[in-house]
């Protein structure tokens, strides 16, 4: 097929392909440290990637495309929607332009939800069968102390974003993550179905928030620091993943950021992929 005539006959298809290519190249350039200069608090490359993805999203929602769907071109709309999702699933290069202070604030913004989730864990033992309550209490005994330390360190980093304070924050978030993952594995051994459901749900709320904080900390940490954090994670994500409910996690993230659940699912998938690739 003549490529020129193909571009002319399928303008939306060609435009979507071009935008995906721009997003992909921008991601690669960002990963290689190529910035092409500053743009506000970010870089020119990150700005180009952001604009390209935004245009791809608008293209997928084009009213003309919607009318084509009504007239029978369902495949075209489906393809555009799929391309928009592909762009979202690609590494988000413009996120690298976020300031460390902004990310530090985001971490602190999660801490009230974390403390609330841990408080729910503390009260969950009363909902379990008498034989299961002691197991659950023992598995989650360290949550309060580890959470208090993490919250205090997150606030300390926001006030004083130095490498030393960040190093302590890295250690504390991994420590709490490992406690939560260990608790999930222990709760999974509870035989009573109702008790197990209550236990896993309560712990997962904490796990979701800790994972979000870990992803934020990871985003502002050096490769060497991330490798060290991963080496300290004896329990890997693959071991606890069977006991997690992705829908519950997505709903929690969506509520926190005031966004659609679908977007939260994409963000969680990205964070999970980055953590697995890092060795968590």
Description:
By secondary structure, this protein is mostly helical. The protein has 2 domains: 3-96; 99-278. 76% of the residues lie in helices and 1% in strands. The chain has 14 helices and 2 strands, in the order ααββαααααααααααα. The protein has a two-stranded antiparallel sheet with strand order 1-2. Helix 3 (44-60) packs antiparallel against helix 5 (74-89). The longest helix is centred in the last third of the chain and has 27 residues, at 193-219. It is globular, with a radius of gyration of 22 Å. The N and C termini lie far apart (47 Å).
Number of helices: 14
Q: How many strands, which pairing sense, and closed or not: the largest β-sheet?
A: 2 strands, antiparallel
- Major β-sheet strand ordering: 1-2
Tell me the number of strands: 2
Helix- and strand-based class? Answer: mainly alpha
Estimate the helix proportion, in percent.
over 70%
Radius of gyration: 22 Å
Q: Report the span from N to C terminus.
A: 47 Å
Question: What are the low-pLDDT stretches, counting only 5+ consecutive residues below 50?
Answer: 61-74, 76-97
Cα shape: globular
Order of helices and strands: HHEEHHHHHHHHHHHH
Residue share in β-strands? under 5%
């Amino acid at each position: 097929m003549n490529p020129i005539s193909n571009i002319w006959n399928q303008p939306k298809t060609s435009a979507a392909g071009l935008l995906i290519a721009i997003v992909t190249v921008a991601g690669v350039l960002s990963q290689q440290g190529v910035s092409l200069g500053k743009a506000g608090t970010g870089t020119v490359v990150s700005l180009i990637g952001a604009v390209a993805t935004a245009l791809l999203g608008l293209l997928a929602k084009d009213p003309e495309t919607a009318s084509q769907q009504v007239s029978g071109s369902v495949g075209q709309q489906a393809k555009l929607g799929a391309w928009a999702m592909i762009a979202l699933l690609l590494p988000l290069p413009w996120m690298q332009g976020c300031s460390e202070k902004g990310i530090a604030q985001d971490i602190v913004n999660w801490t009230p939800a974390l403390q609330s989730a841990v408080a729910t864990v503390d009260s969950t033992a009363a909902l379990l069968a008498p034989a299961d309550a002691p197991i659950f209490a023992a598995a989650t005994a360290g949550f309060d102390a580890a959470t208090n330390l993490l919250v205090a360190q997150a606030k300390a980093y926001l006030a004083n974003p130095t490498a030393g304070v960040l190093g302590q924050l890295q250690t504390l978030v991994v420590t709490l993550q490992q406690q939560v993952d260990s608790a999930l594995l222990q709760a999974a051994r509870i035989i009573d179905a109702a008790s197990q459901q209550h236990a896993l749900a309560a712990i997962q709320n904490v796990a979701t928030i800790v994972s979000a904080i870990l992803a934020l900390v990871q985003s502002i940490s050096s490769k060497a620091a991330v490798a060290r954090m991963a080496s300290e994670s004896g329990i890997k994500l693959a071991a606890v993943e069977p006991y997690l409910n992705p829908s519950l996690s997505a709903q929690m993230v969506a509520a926190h950021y005031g966004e659609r659940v679908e977007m939260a699912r994409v963000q969680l998938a990205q964070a999970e992929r980055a953590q697995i690739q890092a060795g968590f």
